[in-house]
Amino acid sequence: MSIRNLHHALDPTSLAIIGASDRDGSLGRVVIENVIRAGFEGEIWPINPKHDQVAGHRCYRRVADVPGVPDLAVIVTPPQTVPALIHDLGIRGTRAAVIITAGISADQDLRQAMLDAAKPFLLRIIGPNTVGLIVPSAKLNASFAHLQAQPGGIALLSQSGAIATSLIDWAADNDVGFSKVVSLGDMADADAGDFLDLLAGDPETHAIVMYLEAISNPRKFLSAARAAARVKPIVAIKAGRHAEAAKAAATHTGALSGADRVVDAALRRAGILRIEGLGELFDATETIARFPPLEHSRVAIVTNGGGAGVLAVDRLIDFGCALADLSPETVGTLDRNLPANWSRANPVDIIGDAPPHRYKTAVETIVRDVGVDILIVMNCPTGLASPVDAAHAIASLAQSGTISGKPVLTCWLGGRTAREGRTLLQQAGLANYDTPSDVALAASYLAKWSKAQQALVRVPEGRDDEVHCNRDLGRSVLQRVAAEGRRMLNEPEAKAVLAAYGIPVPQTIIATSPKEAEAIAGLLLAGAPKLVVKLISKSITHKSDVGGVVLDILSPVAAREAAEAIVARLKAHDPIAVVDGFAVQPMIERKHAWELLLGVTRDPIFGPVVLFGSGGVSVEVVADTAVALPPLDAVLAGDLIDETRVGKLLAGFRNEPAADRAAICKALTALSQLIVDFPCVLSMDINPLVASAEGVIALDGRIEINPRAVTRPGPNRDLAIRPYPSEWQKQVTLAERRYHLRPIRPADAALYPDFLAKTSPADIRFRFLSSRKRFQDQMLVRLTQIDYEREMAFVALDSETGELVGISRLYADPDHEVAEYGLLIRTDLQGHGLGWALLAYLREYASADGLKRIEGLILGDNAKMLKLCREFGFSISTHPGDATLRIATLALQSQASVS
């Protein structure tokens, strides 16, 4: 597992400090003084051949000399000494080390020697080049931070030591505490993904904040983040937002995707709230930690000052929040209870003399409106009413930060007069903010996080049944291009692939000469009023840049002349460019239509990315686009559309009818499916995709491939998020009862309570190696939100009732050689062969995934499972460290790797 042995670092009972020193100003002295000052209660063993005693503790010359096995080692010695020290620690039995030493990663040979020394012992390394590790609950400060971190429920992961110490300093001044502070350093071994995995199950951690500079293993990071974000709020700052984007390759999409936009899309898909500044980090965390994610995020405002309400609205719109439209019923009730001059709209201005009962009535009325999801309550000090009395009225309605179950954010403006009211609101559990901008920003946090949480639970399938595609036809086109050694498909080839995936394209006929273009035009004009002639050339990527597109052709002669003119313009632009032919097609003209851009490109970190936005020849100038990570389904495709300005226009306005949104979503999911199916596709443009109420049609297409990768099978291993493995499902019949076996889904968490209720306490003890009276919602989420990369779980569902009746599970180690398995069958259905069927399916999957063996821990008194394993071919041995446990091991014959 990726978290293997990291627990030794977070809750050690003994600590070796290699390089500890009494020398003033030395790093070794700061570290050991921090350890002692924090009150660490375990053994402390300084190691330094130059000292006999350090900080009142006996100092040892070598690792081999310490009287016990250090759970955790902290290393502050010169870089060249580190590999040997890691080897010595491994032999001694240490399984985790914090390497504060800098300069190791600058020497790749030294860095690799360090990792090679750790690997045989599965010794985990935090760092190098790290400030260190702080665990307040364990009284552990193995760092050179200048302050002790206070205990609390927030875990901090930071790739910058300077940012970590700055946040500790800020937190000390604002009464914020930490469960863990991990300075990740150079992340030679343990990285942010590992610690996200660990913190997801940490009962002391209620929220996670991160400062990121690089994501080196995106698939691992996203799988860990997606699992952790299901159970705990995660807020992240990712530095480098304005690093120069990669230059465009062969497509518009490459020019418009932008590295930071891809990071933003990745974090959003992982359910993480991304913010921009350090000052927002803990405010954002506190805000979203108060509330569950919302299905919608429409905001209503109650205020006794119209100006304050307008300021809040301005900022809400700036932050992309939606204002709630009050229902006629709500307006009617407010009419009967508010002064005649109230605003009669959102914001609800209840007038400056508003007494407490008016506040109370307005709030109670508005939270009952089904169109309101978030309520902001504001107060401006006046000489006509008391801010404290207004706060009392609102506080009396509050329960756990909500009123009638809806999140309430408050803003009592002012200084001295507002202070007592703010205190009352905070004591009632209501979040309070100083200014309209602050409260609007908080509402935007909740809205953005809720949207990210919705994306998090989407698990599009590797084979989307909604996309009607002819994969064989698409493959044949790509193989033909690859056989010619080409990377770029010409327009007709690209359109053939798009058409194979259900994206409408106009009829296109290829002419090899201007004269042939004239003849083809004569045929097409019999059914079309106008034609288009386009250049086909392997030498040219963007035809419009060289005048390679001619519109509004009305006659065969005009078609020939257009082709001749294209040749002349091309030769003037590039005398050695080759004309491969001309595409002649009907000119598509639709009223009230929009030109859109759909594309796929490759991000150097996150792999394939889907782009959507405004299209046409001015696409780079307009730059109205958004990006998302595939795979997409219809919901995620709709979210992508909604992120653009043109997405709002597509919904229709004034006399403009709405475009066919379903058809646009279908085109996006088709592109997503294409990149899932064909790893050889490097980039792709559809520009323009014309969209109207009549549907969509792709007028131009461009696809770039890696010819050497055409034979690679799908699903695409380069995707940062692995699609739902829909190919791994089947029906089985056992004892005249039919079952559906398939990979687990996040929604299956709803099936667990009934399943567990029908499973005996003894069977639950056998499966989880301990007795459990109840399973918390967080645990059920963790069991069902998996990444299908390191972990796989198959559920057995009763085909008639849909009930969950059995589960088998695999979790692979970091080297993807060995996986731990688990199996649980509903008690009343045991003995009918279902356990055997699930275990056999698990073995089949593990072999296809390239695993070498599967292992399981079994309680010695679990006779049924031990019998099943022996009959299945497992070897059984007694656990060397626990005589009550047995280890079941099954060697596998690897097959073709699972994608």
TrEMBL record:
SUPFAM superfamilies found in the cross-reference section: Acyl-CoA N-acyltransferases (Nat), Glutathione synthetase ATP-binding domain-like, NAD(P)-binding Rossmann-fold domains, Succinyl-CoA synthetase domains
GO BP of this protein: tricarboxylic acid cycle
GO molecular function ontology, one term from the record: acyltransferase activity, transferring groups other than amino-acyl groups
Record bears the keyword Metal-binding: no
Keyword ATP-binding annotated: yes
Keyword vocabulary terms for this entry: ATP-binding, Ligase, Nucleotide-binding, Plasmid, Tricarboxylic acid cycle
Domain N-acetyltransferase intervals: 739-896
Protein name, entry field: N-acetyltransferase domain-containing protein
